[in-house]
Structures are given as structure tokens and as C-alpha cells.
Design goal:
- The chain is α+β, with helices and mostly antiparallel strands.
- It has one domain (4-189): endopeptidase fold (from Nostoc punctiforme), CATH 3.90.1720.
- The chain is 29% helix and 27% strand.
- It has six helices and eight strands, in the order βαββββαβαβααβα.
- It has a six-stranded antiparallel beta sheet with strand order 4-3-2-1-5-8. It has a two-stranded parallel ribbon with strand order 6-7.
- Strand 2 and strand 3 (43-50) form a beta hairpin.
- The two termini are 14 Å apart.
Length: 191
């Protein structure tokens, strides 16, 4: 039985807030998302709800063809899940999406990462905490530290993840279907 592919998208948009985070982390990527197709048309995370205000955040379905992602650098990884794990992932996301107005961004949790002290808040996540929680709750991966201490660069270290692409997000061959027709991507590398 063939498994289904899931994608981890790590990005650096170059916004003022991400530049501040990068000053502290000294890592190339400071935002993590999860995607369910290689075209990145179904991408979820915890982040800003509006492009202009980084302090209003929560659960978001991200549009990687617009806004802050237009000039973003990225790294993309993929992994295979069973049908059962995929159903758990989708169910978990549907529950959050159905109650998304009750979820918020875990800004305090970012300080917990800085001081290596987990700060868990009910119905509040920051981006990599959300992705790590999904992976744990759906029996895909376990981490040596709590999800509230997982930073985007920690996701790059998961050995079952396969490297797919690194560079400008807008140059990723699957982001634009017209571009995909003009310059086909060697599918054998990622599937």
C-alpha cells in the first residue's frame, strides 16, 4: 500500500519581525508550515492573520503565492504517512479550523523557547509548536523536547524527512501550475 506525502515548509519572509527573530536564532528559517500537496495549495500554520499586523495571529491557511511569501526564502521537506495518519492529520486540522476563532498565536511561547522553558497555553501555538504538535498527536514523530520548545530549525533535523527544495519560494517549480508546465520538476526526486 502506497503512503501519502506531507510537506514541511520552512520560510524566511524577510519581514521586520522575522529579521528580529533571525537576530536571536541565527538560523535561516523562522516560520514553519505543513502542506498536503507538492503544489503547496493546502498549507496550514499559526501565524499572522493579516499581512500588516504581526501581532494579530492564530490558525491560518496560508497562501504561498502572495503577501509576505512573495519574496520568501524556503526549505521544503517531505515525508510519507499512512492512510490512518493522514486521516488523523486532516481530522485534527478540521477540529482546529472549526474553532479557529478560539485559537490564538502563542507569543509568550516564543520567550519560552528563548529561555528553554516551555510555555504551554490552551488553544495557543506558535508555528513550529503547531507543526510539532500535529506530528506528535498523529503518531508521525516524537521529539526529545516538548512541542512548545520546538523551533523551525528543529524540524530540519527529523531524520524521516526528505529534502525536496531550498531557495526562493516563488522559484519552487510546483508553486505555479503554469510554471510547472513550462519547466517540469523531476517528480522522481520527491515522490
Amino acid at each position: 500500500m502506497m503512503g501519502k506525502r506531507v510537506y514541511i515548509l520552512l520560510t524566511n519572509s524577510g519581514s521586520f519581525l522575522t529579521k528580529l527573530i533571525k537576530l536571536y536564532t541565527r538560523k535561516p528559517y523562522n516560520h514553519a508550515s505543513i502542506a498536503f500537496d507538492n503544489e503547496l495549495s493546502e498549507v496550514y500554520s499559526f501565524g499572522r492573520k493579516t499581512a500588516r499586523n504581526p501581532f494579530i495571529g492564530g490558525f491560518v491557511k496560508e497562501e504561498v503565492r502572495a503577501g509576505l511569501f512573495t519574496h520568501a526564502d524556503c526549505a521544503i521537506y517531505s515525508f510519507t504517512v499512512t492512510e490512518d495518519q493522514m486521516q488523523k492529520l486532516k481530522h485534527y486540522l478540521q477540529e482546529i479550523e472549526a474553532q479557529k476563532k478560539h485559537y490564538r498565536y502563542n507569543f509568550l511561547g516564543l520567550f519560552g523557547v528563548m529561555f528553554n522553558k516551555p510555555i504551554d497555553r490552551k488553544k495557543a501555538y506558535f508555528c513550529s509548536q503547531f507543526v510539532a504538535t500535529l506530528l506528535i498527536e498523529c503518531n508521525i514523530n516524537h521529539f526529545e523536547k516538548p512541542p512548545s520548545l520546538i523551533a523551525p530549525h528543529d524540524l530540519q533535523k527529523v531524520c524521516k524527512f526528505q529534502f525536496v527544495y531550498e531557495g526562493k519560494l516563488k522559484e519552487y517549480p510546483h508553486v505555479d501550475s503554469a510554471e510547472k508546465i513550462l519547466a517540469p520538476f523531476p517528480y522522481s526526486l520527491i515522490n
